[in-house]
Amino acid sequence: MFVGVMQKLSVTIWNEFVHERENAEVARIYPRGIHGTLADALRQRTELAVRTATLDEPDQGLPPAVLDATDVLVWWGHAAHAAVKDDLAARVQERVIAGMGLVVLHSGHESKIFMRLMGTGCHLCWREAGERERVWVVNPGHPIAAGLGDCIEIEHSEMYGEPFGIPTPEELIFISWFEGGEVFRGGATWTRGSGRIFYFSPGHEAYPIYHHPDIQRVITNGVLWARPQGRPAEVPRHVPVEQARQKITAHGPSVHDAAGHLVSPKS
Amino acid sequence: MFVGVMQKLSVTIWNEFVHERENAEVARIYPRGIHGTLADALRQRTELAVRTATLDEPDQGLPPAVLDATDVLVWWGHAAHAAVKDDLAARVQERVIAGMGLVVLHSGHESKIFMRLMGTGCHLCWREAGERERVWVVNPGHPIAAGLGDCIEIEHSEMYGEPFGIPTPEELIFISWFEGGEVFRGGATWTRGSGRIFYFSPGHEAYPIYHHPDIQRVITNGVLWARPQGRPAEVPRHVPVEQARQKITAHGPSVHDAAGHLVSPKS
Amino acid sequence: MFVGVMQKLSVTIWNEFVHERENAEVARIYPRGIHGTLADALRQRTELAVRTATLDEPDQGLPPAVLDATDVLVWWGHAAHAAVKDDLAARVQERVIAGMGLVVLHSGHESKIFMRLMGTGCHLCWREAGERERVWVVNPGHPIAAGLGDCIEIEHSEMYGEPFGIPTPEELIFISWFEGGEVFRGGATWTRGSGRIFYFSPGHEAYPIYHHPDIQRVITNGVLWARPQGRPAEVPRHVPVEQARQKITAHGPSVHDAAGHLVSPKS
Amino acid sequence: MFVGVMQKLSVTIWNEFVHERENAEVARIYPRGIHGTLADALRQRTELAVRTATLDEPDQGLPPAVLDATDVLVWWGHAAHAAVKDDLAARVQERVIAGMGLVVLHSGHESKIFMRLMGTGCHLCWREAGERERVWVVNPGHPIAAGLGDCIEIEHSEMYGEPFGIPTPEELIFISWFEGGEVFRGGATWTRGSGRIFYFSPGHEAYPIYHHPDIQRVITNGVLWARPQGRPAEVPRHVPVEQARQKITAHGPSVHDAAGHLVSPKS
Known about the structure:
4 copies of one chain form a homotetramer.
Chain A: E1 2-6, E2 9-15, H1 19-22, H2 24-29, H3 33-42, E3 48-54, H4 64-68, E4 72-76, H5 86-97, E5 101-105, H6 112-118, E6 125-137, E7 151-161, E8 171-178, E9 183-192, E10 195-200, H7 213-225, E11 237-238
Parallel strand pairs in A: 2-3, 2-4, 4-5, 5-10
Antiparallel strand pairs in A: 6-7, 6-8, 8-9, 9-10
Helix pairs in contact in A: 5-6
């Protein structure tokens, strides 16, 4: 046994917070918003310092000071993807590349930030019928699956089906089975630059899925897994000839000046 | 032995065509442009139907009719990345996701289209000193390495060094060694949607690298490898309850109407 | 259009050929053995030269001359995995590493050769109840999925369920849904050395699954995809100092002699 | 800030311990064996409980009680790979699949245990000339690279060159540059079952490489990264019809009995 003193992990839960205020059924399930329920769950872990942010706040909830101080960002959006400013999506992407973790939930698969990081359309098949979903653990050795049994049973869920327009995940952790006959790669990870990304599909706002203990456990595991690990890459970087680690002599013509800037073409 | 009759593969070589017209040294090496030299090389293969396109042409060389008829697009850009319209980059991305192959050469690592498909900054370290580059085959079983020896020797090259800001390649085929002391993952592949992407780093415009037979061979192999293979995904797609492959009964509240459209929030 | 003259691909279908001779139900479905049905299907393609091999033949059906002349090997085994000689499994592994393609079917997941190439136990969950299986295409752009619709419906199948003890596939092409509630990564690829491997799970011998046109199509696609592509790696290889591509001077102590042999320790 | 009380990680460093006793030069560099130097380095971290094991000890240093209590195993071998019993290699493989971490160093690339887990020959090109090696960080965001600069400089090293006969790494962290002109994927990771594997190439016994602070840092990082994360898969597992999570009715013929055992063929 040993005792360690560690820095808390700074987690920001971002939610568009639309349906919880527009739809009485959703409001009944998440009276303080999906972000409120998720924050309560994450705050069970003393190593996490949790704040929330919503679309209607100044700077859409993520002013630079907040984003820069965030170790792991959790993202929930659905109806208002288009309202998120391109500039904010670009800043989040840059932060992920620099090492910030990102946990994208449910309909966040079509958020600007997720599509930017994947490089694909991220589309899928879907059906809202309150059918049974069974989330199978296909990678029981992965830390995001820690503490789970063979699968998670969700009595009423929205169907998300294949083909899911994502790049091949680096790690596939969960595959969902649906009562209506489909399957879905619903829990998967990628890295982009120095940042880790976890996508987790369950979480339709019309059902109380984020109150499910195992769903909360997966999201908590995902946040801990996505914490920054190393350092950002310091690129782009010009290496002058005299700083080469092996001594070399420059040869031949050049389209750059001595400082490494491209000599601007006339046009 | 058997005889097959096949459709020719439609290849478009896109070049910004700037330095060949602005810089006398580059013009001497590529009098008809880098695209001209590459087209001559690819036309050695009877199964390829090759056309070229440049930035200064109408629709920046890639009007919808041309792009839609292209099976594999080869991309060379450097000084004019910013001049490529966002709309064109978006159309190319969409075509790749639908199955078109893409071969990105040298400084194309910072082209809009490559960065969009990778989801990262795609930056690197670099030095223009005409130093020796040795391109090692790390995956001799890959079709893009077919016909090569252990490595390709390039007498004068621009150094591209790690860290290279790309997602982990699905296949790494070449790693370059540089006289000045660096290494680089210079030949790598990814898939995005139904499209295959090959990035190949040698090719600085100030040296005659695209006249090198082995470099031409790699690019030809890359074009053949990147040809469309299957079909695009037909997503997004709503699956109505009555079309589920297993009979189910819908339950619970809904945020969509019967046609699958999200019920618009008031705001 | 262009005309090409190509070498036929040499395909060997190996079958343990046990249950077809021991069990009347299986014999009724596959009167000439599973290998006979698969050979009929593959022979529809003129570019394939197909032979079959069974466990009871000399050298267990794969004498060196046959194995060395095989471009792609198809493997079906279940009851007699233990009877396959370790030496044969080692020879097949070596051939795959040198570039031969391998298509492993159904219960071949626990064959010696598949376990050797994966490095894992390759175990799974299973149930033989003649339930419905639906094989979803998750990668419609992959050549192994060419010509298929959204999924393949199999009326009676054996359930294979997760977790499946394989290394993360390089490409995941199919995921199966089962009536009894499970999912399975039933179509996946890997490379080992210069060889390509495709595993495809449907094919329980008690049901007529290999008579299904879409199943035959997948296996044919898989054989074509797995054909040798490049060349084997020529390793291990000692590079004497005087053959280094950059001139160097040897320094320091050595545990090898001049020819590169390890100086044998006394013990 | 928060305080956590954690279980120590149990690390076993295995060394064949041959050249340190047979070769005076090697003995001078590692008077208490390579394992002694590595143990001193790892013991700097209070969260690690470190023991060593050598080939000449009972049960080749790894009796079941020791192996079963090991969270991460570090492996160094070169001259005596063949002396390691197949049974021991099989037990180590089984432990990795069940979740134990494995750090394989230098010439361990041809150890029985590494080859079994990779499924390939793991061969490479090599030269012992005491030349300069420069280990570049290609993945600065990875925890195994934490605390390093752009690269590690090793003044005298053995060259290990491509092609390296490994399956595509899941993560590539380091690529080495060699003075004589080669490159090498010298730091890479894989998972097998629930276990994590890290291979790190520097460490020829004729040079004092394991005294290098950055090399020690990488190995320490690798041990921490490889710690068990989730749980083993509980497979193979038969799921009787009445235990299916969805109610189903069994159909059709069977080659198994009610308990799931294969009905033995007559032969």
